[in-house]
Amino acid sequence: MNTRRTIHEPAREVPVLAEPDVLVVGAGPAGLAAACAAARAGAATLLVESYGSLGGTLTLVTLGGLCGIHAVLDDERLGRVVGGLGLELEDRLAKVDAILPPRRHGRIVGVPYDSVRLKIVLDEMAAAHGVEVLLHTSAVAVSTEGRRIAAVFVENKGGRGAIVPRIVVDASGDGDVAARAGAAYELGLAGETQYGSAMFRLTGVDTARAGALSRAQIRACLERAVAEGMPLPRTATGVHLNPIDGIAHLNVTKPGRPDGSPFDLSDPLQLGDAEREGRRQVHLYEEAFRRHVPGFERARVVDIGARVGVRETRLVRGDRVLTESQVRACEKPADRIACSAWPLENHGRGRTTNWEFLPDGQWYGIPWGCLVVEGLDNLLVAGRNLSAEHGAQASVRVAGPCMALGEAAGTGAAMSLAAGGEPRALDLGALQSRLRAEGAILDPAWA
Ligand SMILES: Cc1cc2nc3c(=O)[nH]c(=O)nc-3n(C[C@H](O)[C@H](O)[C@H](O)COP(=O)(O)OP(=O)(O)OC[C@H]3O[C@@H](n4cnc5c(N)ncnc54)[C@H](O)[C@@H]3O)c2cc1C
Predict the structure, then answer these.
(1) 232, 266, 292, 348: which sits with the fewest CB atoms below 10 Å from its CB?
(2) Is-above-0.85 flag for pTM?
C-alpha cells in the first residue's frame, strides 16, 4: 500500500447534482444542527453524509450520553448552556421514550439516550425543518475560484457528481472540505491528537450494582486487572446506563500504535488499524469487566459502534482561534455565538483521562470567527473541526456545544445569503438576536 507511483486521472465532465444555497457536509450533531438551522432560516439546504444514518458519532459510534448541555452549578444543581436545536432534539427523544434525565458522575454530566431510536428521530427532525438529505455520499474534492469554493465533488454508488452551493458548512469532523480547499489546519498539538475509542454496549449487566459504582471504584477494579497481568491501555472510565434496562455503555478502549502513541485518524491506513485494534480491545475489556467489576459477571458485548470514535483530527484555521487560555479564563467575548461549560477532557497518553474542570457555574463563549475559515469567503466549519487549539477543542468538542456551533453556522450561512453578503461580513448582532429568538443560549440563565 502507498507506493510512490502516480497515474494521471483523466479530466471529465460530471453531472451537477444540486445547486443548494447551503451545502452541509457531515451529519453529526454539528452538521445536523447546521442543516436544520439553515433550512429553518429559509435557505435551500442539502446535507451530505458518508454513512447511511444521521447523527455522526452519536449514532455510528454510540455514546454514553449527550454531554456539554449542562453546567454544574454546585453539588446539587445544574444549569443549561445549550438550548435551541439541542433542546428540540431532547424533546423529540423524550416523546419516543429514548432519553433519561441528566446523570451526574461527580462533576461530569451526560444525558443518556437511545442511539437506535435517535436515528429515526433525526430523520424526522431533518425532514421537519425541510432539509434535503443525501446519504451514502462522501465529499471527496473541491474546486475553488479565487477565495470561493465553486463546487464540491461527491462520490456515491451513482459515481461522481458535483454540488454547486453558495455557502458550504464543513461539519465532517475531519475538516475534509477545508483541507481539500487548501485551508490551513493543525493536527492536534504538534501532530499528536487525542486517542480515539471503539465504543461498545454490554447486555446482561446488573445495572443497579453497576450503576452504583463511582469512577474511582471502577478504576480500582481495572487497575487490579492490570496488576494481574491484563494489558489494559486505559482504566479511567464510567459506566453509562442506557434507557434500555440491562444495557451498559462503555467508553474505555484506547487504540494506539505499537509504540503507544495515538493514531493519526485522518490517515486511512491508521484509521483501519485503529478499527481493528479497537475491536480487539473490546474483547479484552469484556473479559476484564466480567472478572473484576461488580455487576458485570454475566455481561456480554451486544454491540460495537459501526466505526471507531474519533475525538480529534484536523483543527481548521479560522479568522479566530479558540485558545486554551480563553477557555481556562472562561472568556465571554462579545462576538460569541455559542457557549460551553464542559471541562478540558483530554484523552492523552497513559491509562488515565485528564479532566480539568471549570469553576462551578462558569462557562465560556465561542466567537463567530472560529467558524469562518481563514482565506475562504464561502466556507464555514462547525463541530469538532472548528478553529481551536488542541487544549480548547478538548472542551468544546462534545455533542451539546457541537450542536450549538452547528446551529450558529447554519443560521449565519442563511442570514449571509439573505443579506447578499458573506459570512465574514455578517451583522453579528443580528445573528445573535436570531439565535436567541430560536432559543439558543448565549447568556446562560443563572449567570
Ligand atoms: C469515543 C468517543 C466518545 C465520546 N463520548 C461522548 C459523550 O459521551 N458525550 C458527548 O456529548 N460527546 C462525546 N464524544 C464527542 C462527540 O461525539 C463528538 O465530539 C461530536 O460527535 C462531534 O460532532 P461533529 O458533528 O463535529 O462530528 P462527528 O460526530 O464526527 O460527525 C461527522 C460526520 O461527518 C461525516 N463525514 C465525515 N467526512 C465526510 C465526508 N467527506 N463527506 C460526507 N460526510 C462525511 C461522518 O460520517 C459523520 O457522520 C465522544 C467522542 C468519541 C470519539
Answers:
(1) 348
(2) yes
